[in-house]
Amino acid sequence: MNITSKILLSIITGTCLVPFTACGSSDSNNQSSQQVTTTQQEQTTDTTTTATTKEDKTTPEVTVENNATAEATDSTESNTLVVYFSRTGNTEKIAEYLINITNADSYVIEAAVPYTDEDIEYNNASCRANQEQNDKSVRPEIVDPISSIDSYDTIFLGFPIWWGQEPRIIDTFLESCDFSEKTVIPFCTSGSSGISTSEKNISELVTIGTQLEGRRFPAGASEDEVKEWYDTLNLNK
Asked: Which end of the chain has the lower number of beta carbons within 10 A, N or C?
């Protein structure tokens, strides 16, 4: 082989080596790129799985307690109702003592047209209360009348004594309900007048299943005095 042939052979050999080297680099880069892509996908999948697992673990548990609460409430319902009318607060105080002692429900009788101080001015013969007490047919209107007393067995009925009797608004309440199967127990507050006339009026006005003897309390009566009276009624036996 002469010199010219050797030169040509060297040129041809060098030309072929360049493409092979280039191809080898491209394949290597592609493989690396594929590995990186695959690794990123795996990491993303792992992250998603971890997030889902954390959400599942932190989902709050639901506890149902409503039924138990409702049963407890139903089991503690009272069959005693304390109803009262109080203009100056004296009867209200006695009623509150009774509510504490008996754990009873309560209903306050309120006049649609409230009584003012002038309305109950004892020295004024023409005041509103005096006129009402002199007319047994008067029935003062009650605001928000009680809807029913059917669920109660025992009714305590409280009022102040006006001119020796129960206020006429008590008569309004009595005629609005059915007491034929109830036990009714009157109580009142006054400076001196007794409760006997009011008890007679009540028994004649409506039909009552059982009417127990009532009690008059002075304005300053204590809860102990009310408790002593309540114990004599023997309602728990």
From this structure: C
